[in-house]
Amino acid sequence: MAKIPPVKGTRDFYPEKMALRNWILSGWQSISLRNGFLEYDGPIFEHLQLFTQKSGEGIASELFSLTDRGGRDLAIRPEMTPTLARMVNQQFNALPKPIKWFSMPRCCRAEKPQKGRLREFFQWNCDIVGTDSTLADAECIFTAVDYLRSVGLTAADIVVRLSSRAMLAALLADLKFNPDEFEKVYVLLDKRPKLSAEAFAELAAEQIPNPDQRKKLMQVQSLQSLKEVGELLHTDQARAALAGLTELFDQLDQLGIADYCQFDITIVRGLAYYTGPVFEIFDRQSRLRAVAAGGRYDNLLAGFGGPQASGTGFGMGDVVLEILLTEKDLLKPKAAEVDFFLIDAEPKLFDQLLQVTAQLRQAGLTAAFDYRRTSIGKQLKQASALNTRFVIILGAETIESNMVTIKDMAQGKQSQILLNKLLENPRQVL
Amino acid sequence: MAKIPPVKGTRDFYPEKMALRNWILSGWQSISLRNGFLEYDGPIFEHLQLFTQKSGEGIASELFSLTDRGGRDLAIRPEMTPTLARMVNQQFNALPKPIKWFSMPRCCRAEKPQKGRLREFFQWNCDIVGTDSTLADAECIFTAVDYLRSVGLTAADIVVRLSSRAMLAALLADLKFNPDEFEKVYVLLDKRPKLSAEAFAELAAEQIPNPDQRKKLMQVQSLQSLKEVGELLHTDQARAALAGLTELFDQLDQLGIADYCQFDITIVRGLAYYTGPVFEIFDRQSRLRAVAAGGRYDNLLAGFGGPQASGTGFGMGDVVLEILLTEKDLLKPKAAEVDFFLIDAEPKLFDQLLQVTAQLRQAGLTAAFDYRRTSIGKQLKQASALNTRFVIILGAETIESNMVTIKDMAQGKQSQILLNKLLENPRQVL
Fold it and tell me: B381 and chain A: CB distance < 8 Å anywhere?
């Protein structure tokens, strides 16, 4: 029988890799909770139409689609946002506002595996729906930074590049673009960092045939500060967008993460549904893809048959994050360990060894023993291989006086204790 | 835009349901760890052939299959065992033995949704590979019971029904069945509890045309104790199988779970790969499907192109478990709560409120505030809706003397504390 390999672009999580994944996901979870988000999840697959209807063109072409026995077209989720919109829409009126939710879905995209991109990954999603307060945008950005800071990334390592779709829209209106052209321009600008200067110039000439308009758009894209932007803006709508972004920067400052955040007008996001502040988080050298990205969406729920309600959120994938943390030597999952490893120095004590093992486990402690009834030396070796903290040896003195020997594997010291006393409170020796 | 519904047979985990799922899965995880299992996981999909090659016929017909852009046939995992076999085979020589692993995969089966069966579910898998010691079987059964007992199920609620494929094989040999007929008989016997007496009799007559053989098989199936079985056995192989099962019952007794375990010769398991002890865990009234099931497999790895190495394991799904725990009123997930909800009694204190919020979160505590800058009364209401433990009010006295008011929401009491002192160690008030 031939061995069948794993599918290209997927990962096998052997225990060491699994510990690392758990370390990342439990970090996401605890940071979400302390920032007041509640966890949710949806199914791994949805009706295909949920994804083709509203996702960015890139995502829709990368679906793993399937057909069930009833002939329904389904697809594995490539992202969480459509499921979030579906779930919120289903219960919108019953849910307390703002809806402040997070999820850590496994997602799949049928793309070519490459550095930072796999066909299967985990993506942390935080969203706040049902409020248009910039405080919600500030909280989302703070939560992403709160996590990255908690694992040791400083403002010298990463940067939140932040802009506003609403402000860019005002600038585009000033450059006489029609509102129905905006989306085309967003997609074009979003592609810029991924293309060579020549390839981008070619694409820009194709998408924006008017050379004057094109030139002015590039001038706008080179603005360095909110002050420079302010000097260009004329309409009330534009000034309101600028004021909103300025307020957001102030709030991020009060939250203590101003040093992580930077205005960057070139941040646009390709997805159609963004309407307000948009951001991407990068390593400072921009050598890697974005670690996280998000923004405000006013029409997302309505786009899925729901009410007009504004929301804001972000996603952070585990693949780029893991590369970044590896490079910075910040991956620190806890190694698995055994609290107590039991050894019977007398074969007739084996029944008692089983009893004690069961009792220690019921008390919440990790207890193990060697299935092969071999020498004490071999059993100690097994204990050591399992990263054991304390070895408990049942021997002649256990039969005579209920005493067991406890060996501290880190210190190499050993002592004796009454078995009953140990079992009364096994944590006393840890 | 029309609303698109979720796919039939899947679940939306709104925060309350998600808390329940997390409660179940974190229970599985902590019980696995204290019993010495290490966590692993594989991809959500595999090459289709991995599942069609060796899974039971029932499972193979229930696959969600898909094709990637390279034309490869893939399928979402309907169970974990093939992935386990693949992963163990890939690194068999490098892995320390015994391999003692657990996983809690999301699995999908394209079957008709019904009570206790969904098209998407979570299944706890524990396996010990690379040892033929019955201690490994005992540890698997103990681990399953350790979990069920930890959530409050007693020996009056559930029962582990235990038999042995090896022993049944010896009995079948005695009844002059050819070894190549055994699998057919296992599948037949496994179907018995799911069929009416008539339907079973009809199927049995079809599968075992010899009436005498059929009658004797039914007599064997009515044996009530290991002693009765012993009286029927003639060969050394048969006696060895009986001795192994007796030893296993002794070990389960030493581990303190004899009252949960019961010999039941009708437990056979339909899957082809079992070769030794097999068990199923049921509610005592047998009103529900099995909560968990497993057994020993000698040829599983070899069946996937790997070495001849024995293993034993079990699976427990979340769907039947949740029904059982609901019926017994044992579902006790922890409700989400907010440690500190901050209120500014003076609008100019809002910047400071944001600063304090960020500091409390960095200290690991859940902190929240109201985005709407409304009255204190409304903010208190919001705090209450979020299940807040303590409200912190910044007011005139904060400006004057750095004091804040702390309101204990459960007790209704309030007191004052220096803000600096609170932030030095916020846990002091919890």
Answer: no
